[in-house]
Automatic annotation (TrEMBL):
Pfam families the UniProt entry points to: Thioredoxin_4
Isomerase in keyword set: yes
Protein name: Protein-disulfide isomerase
Record domain Thioredoxin-like fold: where: 45-212
Single GO MF descriptor: isomerase activity
Family designation: Belongs to the thioredoxin family. DsbA subfamily.
Residues in the signal sequence: 1-27
Domain of life: Bacteria
Keywords carried by this UniProt record: Isomerase, Signal
Keyword Isomerase: yes
Length: 216
């Protein structure tokens, strides 16, 4: 039996009710970021990383959201070059940190889904959700996107429902957001290189900051 947009939206509403409530609470506390664009270099609980191992000479931290258009743009336009130059060569340790932007329920559910997919597929899911943002402007609801991705990583509908409503996972996400806020993060994407905020997210600005640290 086919699942239409209305059915998908209903299922998402039921599965993400707790995520939506969490997002509303975070918004009320002023913790939700604006999509646009402290110490951001220290290891934190829940970090997802690529590239060089912990303790690397240079650590780059990105705060981003799966619902942030600017983050999706960076992912598509800058990340491939940055990854090839610094991450694949193990010159830097790249850390991705979650900071949801509106719509809060979608962002929260997306991040929870990425973690439920497993550490080895976390980045794959995050990147897929960002790449799918263009679908939302064409009438495809985010609920359908997340449901499709959940299926692609092997999660059943029940597992997906459990994933995005798990109280402990939601509490951990709230903790990560609070930590980001305490470091002065207010917008996404935001980048730190060895604890120093980079003025913008261009390849030029990131390369200048990274190369300066590598040269020390």
């Amino acid at each position: 039996m086919s699942t239409g947009p209305k059915t998908a939206r209903f299922r998402f509403s039921a599965m993400s009710r707790r995520a939506a409530m969490t997002g509303a609470a975070l918004a009320a506390m002023g913790t939700l970021a604006a999509c646009g664009g402290s110490d951001g270099g220290q290891a934190a609980q829940g970090d997802m990383a690529k590239g060089a191992p912990e303790g690397a000479k240079v650590t780059v931290v990105e705060y981003a959201s799966v619902t942030c258009g600017a983050c999706a743009g960076w992912q598509e336009q800058v990340w491939p070059e940055f990854k090839a130059k610094y991450v694949d060569t193990n010159q830097v340790r790249f850390i991705f940190r979650e900071f949801p932007t509106p719509p809060a329920d979608v962002a929260a559910a997306g991040f929870l889904l990425a973690r439920c997919a497993g550490e080895d597929r976390y980045f794959e899911v995050v990147e897929e959700i960002m790449a799918s943002q263009r679908e939302w402007g064409q009438g495809i609801p985010p609920a359908a996107t997340l449901s499709r991705i959940a299926t692609s990583v092997g999660l059943s509908e029940e597992e997906y429902r459990t994933c995005v409503t798990d109280p402990e996972a939601l509490a951990a996400l709230e903790g990560r957001i609070q930590s980001a806020r305490s470091e002065g993060v207010t917008a996404t994407p935001t980048f730190f290189v060895n604890g120093t905020r980079v003025p913008n997210s261009s390849m030029e600005a990131l390369s200048a900051a990274v190369d300066a640290e590598l040269a020390k």
